Amino acid sequence: MTIVNIKRWNKNILCQQQYYTPQMQALLQDLDRAIENPYKILKNDVTSTVVVIEVDNQLLVVKRANTKDWMHMIRRLFSSSRAKKNWRNSLKLLKIGIPTFTPVALIEECFGFLNGRSYFICTYIEGIDALHYFACGAKPQPIWRNVAVNIANMLQKLADNKLSHRDLNLSNILVIDNQPWLIDLDSMRHHWCDISAKKGALREQKRFMENWDEAPGVAPETVSLFQDIFAKLDTFGK
Predict the structure, then answer these.
(1) On the chain, which terminus has fewer CB atoms closer than 10 Å, C or N?
(2) C-alpha span between 56 and 127 (Å, rounded)
(3) Residue 53 main-chain phi, psi, to 5 deg
(4) In order along the chain (238 residues), what is the average pLDDT of each group of 10 residues?
């Protein structure tokens, strides 16, 4: 993968060469304008703004990590930007065969040693999240078991590679052609020892099952299905 890296006094820009077209170059010059006039808004709150835009006849997602104030910038002084985390984590997942978005570009603002806002651009994934796939009044289907097994195998693969997603909400798992795709990788962590990795994996499984208690209209068959699959596969217990 060839990367274009542009450094300015207050900005660091990375972009995959194949996406670095004239239209992309113009976009990277004024990304806020595109965010203000998006194709679709996915999220907009104090922590982040996530929108869908169109570039070169292709839909892309832009995620801007908003900075609350100067104290927030100081607290993040020694940590990587959320854009850089998404970039690195998506490449890790793709390397081990877990489907996720493709990183396209990122922008990191800086003021001396202080990190400002960051922007992450990735491919747009069209799918149904796990909550709406399994719940919200959905009628249990025979294919559910195959999809549930695929999700359990994905979580096991994370554990085998000492990775924890750490924000395993059902909305962060998209189902496409019966395969799970993992998104929202800001908090993903790589564990450096087996003990930490196992503890992280057990927390992942617990968090995943807690989703069903918090979700509305969940069919009892859904919870039983995942409990059965996790027990048979001995997921995270190895």
Answers:
(1) N
(2) 22
(3) -130, 170
(4) 91 97 96 95 91 97 80 59 95 98 95 81 95 77 91 94 94 95 95 91 91 79 88 61
In 58-203, the DSSP E strands lie at 58-65, 103-111, 114-123, 128-129, 163-164, 173-176, 179-182, 189-190
Q: Are 90 and 100 in contact (CB under 8 A)?
A: yes
Cα angle at 18 between 57 and 101, to 5 degrees? 70
* CA distance to 36, 37, 153, 183, per residue, from 41 (Å): 9, 9, 32, 16
Residue 64 tokens read as 């801007």
Rounded to 10 degrees, what is the CA torsion of 33, 171, 87, 72? 70
Q: Are strands 11-16 and 103-111 parallel, antiparallel or unpaired?
A: antiparallel
Which of 161, 168, 175 shows the shortest CA–CA distance to 214?
168
- Residue 113: both structure tokens together: 């040693």
Where do the domains of the chain lie, and which CATH numbers do they carry? 3-123 (3.30.200), 128-233 (1.10.510.10)
Beta strands 103-111 and 114-123 are antiparallel
Answer whether 85's CB lies under 8 Å from 185's CB: yes
> What pTM was computed for the model?
0.91
- Distance, CA of 43 to CA of 38 (rounded, Å): 12
Choose among 190, 16, 10, 210: nearest CA to 103: 16
- Cβ burial 176-186 (10 Å sphere, 16+ → b, else e): eeeebbbbbbb
Take residue 116 and report the two structure tokens written for it: 């400002």
